[in-house]
Amino acid sequence: MKVVISACLLGVRCRYDGGDSRNQTAIKQEKRRQLIPVCPEESGGLPTPRPPAEIVGGDGNDVLDGTAKVMTDDGTDVTEAFLKGAHHALEVAQSNGATHVILKARSPSCGCGDIYDGTFSGTLTSGDGVTTALLKRHGITVTTL
Description:
Elements lengths: L1 E5 L17 H6 L4 E5 L1 H4 L9 E4 L3 H6 L3 E4 L6 H17 L4 E4 L10 E3 L7 E3 L3 H8 L3 E4 L1
Parallel strand pairs: 1-2, 1-5, 5-8
Antiparallel strand pairs: 3-4, 6-7
Helix pairs in contact: 4-5
């Protein structure tokens, strides 16, 4: 079984701060499944490290619908990069026949169920990241670690 997974969960240093989110549960999955790492933010053209970003005005579904934006903490609009990265992750999943994706919790790309609220205050709100929203719209099951 092929599973697309956030590269940071496997120890790839692709987080916004240049670090990783190594997760032993994710790493143990490699023994049972073929894991395909992806970082939507890097795939969208953003550098590592990069300024922190949050969805302003809604969640990933609102970004996909054009009613919300992804902004960095210094006010730069990075919506297009997040959309490009989300579409790349979808393409990777579809081309590999992956029906399940494991993503990084709370991320404006990968969050599922909870994301930061767009105020850069560390406050969580209900919603999905851009990549998660796009994958769900295409019938792919998303879980987070």
